[in-house]
Design brief:
single chain, 89 residues, alpha+beta
C-alpha cells in the first residue's frame, strides 16, 4: 500500500474515533419515553448528559411519527409522557 493511502486511512480512523468519543462520551443517562397524542402512541429511546436532556430528546423523537405538522409536534411535546424509564449508562 502507498504511504499516502495509509495516512488517509489513519486520518479517517482518527476522525471517526474522535466523533464517537465526543458524542457517546457525554451521554450518561438513557431514557425510554412513550407519548400518547390524538389517539396514537409511540415510544423512543434517547441518551444525554442528564436525565432531563435524555427525556426531552426521547419525547421529541417519540412525537415525530404520531403527529402531522408543526402545531401537532408542539402540542405533543407539551404533553406529559405516558411513561418514562431512565437508566445510567
Amino acid at each position: 500500500m502507498k504511504r499516502s493511502t495509509l495516512y488517509t486511512i489513519a486520518v479517517i480512523a482518527g476522525i471517526a474515533a474522535m466523533f464517537f468519543f465526543m458524542t457517546a462520551g457525554t451521554a450518561k443517562q438513557e431514557c425510554r419515553v412513550c407519548m400518547d397524542y390524538a389517539g396514537r402512541s409511540n415510544c423512543a429511546t434517547a441518551a444525554g448528559p442528564t436525565q432531563e436532556a435524555a427525556t426531552e430528546t426521547a419525547k421529541t423523537t417519540a412525537c415525530g411519527p404520531i403527529t402531522s405538522g408543526m402545531n401537532d409536534v408542539i402540542a405533543c411535546g407539551n404533553r406529559m409522557p405516558a411513561s418514562v424509564q431512565c437508566r445510567s449508562r
